[in-house]
């Protein structure tokens, strides 16, 4: 159930990376200062002194990534008439905040001819991640190895955050030319272009943006319930299947960590093992980072049953290049609050996937 409160806007932060789709606010709520997020596409702009209605559910539940207040509406500056976009596809469908977008599948799309000419992805590498932070080292490795000549497109699914505007990471990667374009599919929206589903998202990456490599992943805010199938990142398997069906080269990024204290996520996460063993049916390459000693042996042992009984293959590559490139671009990324230095193997894995993708291009 939605929990809402009235609040007064105390200050509005300057847009980061030149963004015009989101505002970071400090608000007075129940006599205390708190952070809030305002999406301009949903609620319009707010200013200091405005009275707003906030969704406070996530903060009440003490959630992690999404644990902030969100503006539902501005009571001071209510907008009654606005120009609607040309599209007719609704996202956040059948909710009070449903919004219309122009999807690439629509007849009114300026790219409709390009979409209709699609035949297959012609072996385009499609890097499929589970967690949002993995997109950074994957893209950075591709860019570094191609001297920034390869076009990398991020296709965001609707497994976690639905508005791309919530991702500071995606905005930074775009501003620093590490990703060239963004596509939001399903119920997710706010990308450079919109699609109805992941399949047309991948088609648009190739046909509209001329992608050399696509990276598919949910936005920030992965949901995990601790059960075998109860995590939103299970979409990774569906992405690998979509890439294979459309004639791409599916590359799986395993979730690897030796810093996570939860045993089910030590070494190769049980999320990855479930995806590769039971969800991903298309033959895929599993990108394994170069590791030494006990860590390498543990990963080999965990993946052995899957490799023995499935259509997937594992390839080992050094993941250093992506991390070096992120440092050179001053991109500081975290996973579960842990930095690259604190959870290095986690970030080496997607970087190794980027290396494999770059090799496919050569």
Rg over CA atoms, rounded to whole Å, is 21 Å
Give the overall silhouette: globular
Q: Assign the CATH class of the largest domain.
A: Alpha Beta
CATH architectural grouping of the largest domain: 3-Layer(aba) Sandwich
Helix/sheet category: alpha/beta
Which residues sit in consecutive blocks of at least 5 with pLDDT less than 50?
A: none
Helix content: 25-40%
Q: Distance between termini?
A: 52 Å
Quick tags:
eight-stranded parallel sheet; 11 helices; 362 residues; Rossmann fold; alpha/beta; OB fold (Dihydrolipoamide Acetyltransferase, E2P); 2 domains; globular; five-stranded mixed beta barrel
Can you walk me through this structure?
The protein is an alpha/beta fold and 362 residues long. The protein folds into 2 domains: 4-74, Beta Barrel (OB fold (Dihydrolipoamide Acetyltransferase, E2P)), CATH 2.40.50.220; 112-361, Rossmann fold, CATH 3.40.50. The protein has 11 helices and 19 strands. The chain has helices at 40-43, 57-60, 112-116, 135-145, 168-175, 198-207, 235-245, 270-279, 293-309, 320-328, 344-361; strands spanning 4-12, 22-29, 32-39, 51-55, 69-74, 89-91, 99-101, 125-128, 152-157, 181-185, 193-195, 213-218, 249-252, 256-257, 267-268, 285-289, 313-317, 334-335, 338-339. The strands form 5 sheets. An 8-stranded parallel sheet has the order 11-10-9-12-8-13-16-17, with helices on both faces. The chain has a 5-stranded mixed barrel with strand order 1-2-3-5-4. The chain has a two-stranded antiparallel ribbon with strand order 6-7. A hairpin with a 2-residue loop joins strand 2 (22-29) and strand 3. Helix 4 crosses helix 10, helix 4 packs across helix 11 and helix 7 (235-245) runs parallel beside helix 8. The protein starts with a strand and ends with a helix. The model has no long low-confidence stretch (mean pLDDT 93).
């Amino acid at each position: 159930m939605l929990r809402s409160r009235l609040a007064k806007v105390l200050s509005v932060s300057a847009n980061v990376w030149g963004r015009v789709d989101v505002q970071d606010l400090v608000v007075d709520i129940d006599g205390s200062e708190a952070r809030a997020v305002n999406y301009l596409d949903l609620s319009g702009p707010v200013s200091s002194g405005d009275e707003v209605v906030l969704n406070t559910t996530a903060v009440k539940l003490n959630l992690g990534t999404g644990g902030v207040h969100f503006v539902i509406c501005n009571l001071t500056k209510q907008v009654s008439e606005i120009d609607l976009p040309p599209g007719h596809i609704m996202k956040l469908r059948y909710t009070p905040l449903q919004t219309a977008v122009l999807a690439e599948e629509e007849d009114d799309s300026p790219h409709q001819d390009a979409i209709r000419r699609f035949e297959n992805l012609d072996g385009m590498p499609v890097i499929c991640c589970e967690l949002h932070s993995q997109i950074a080292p994957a893209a950075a490795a591709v860019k570094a190895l191609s001297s920034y000549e390869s076009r990398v497109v991020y296709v965001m699914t609707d497994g976690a955050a639905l508005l791309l505007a919530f991702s500071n990471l995606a905005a930074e990667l775009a501003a620093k030319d590490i990703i060239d374009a963004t596509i939001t599919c399903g119920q997710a929206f706010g990308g450079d272009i919109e699609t109805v589903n992941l399949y047309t998202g991948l088609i648009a990456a190739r046909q509209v943006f001329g992608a050399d490599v696509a990276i598919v992943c949910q936005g920030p805010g992965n949901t995990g319930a601790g059960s075998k199938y109860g995590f939103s990142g299970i979409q990774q398997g569906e992405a690998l299947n979509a890439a294979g069906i459309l004639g791409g080269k599916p590359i799986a990024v395993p979730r690897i960590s030796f810093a996570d204290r939860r045993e089910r996520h030590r070494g190769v996460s049980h999320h990855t093992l479930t995806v590769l063993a039971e969800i991903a049916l298309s033959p895929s390459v599993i990108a394994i980072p170069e590791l030494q000693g006990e860590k390498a042996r543990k990963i080999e042992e965990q993946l052995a049953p899957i490799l023995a009984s499935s259509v997937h293959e594992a390839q080992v590559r050094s993941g250093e290049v992506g991390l070096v490139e992120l440092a050179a671009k001053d991109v500081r990324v975290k996973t579960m609050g842990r930095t690259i230095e604190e959870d290095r193997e986690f970030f080496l894995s997607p970087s190794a996937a980027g290396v494999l993708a770059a090799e496919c291009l050569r």
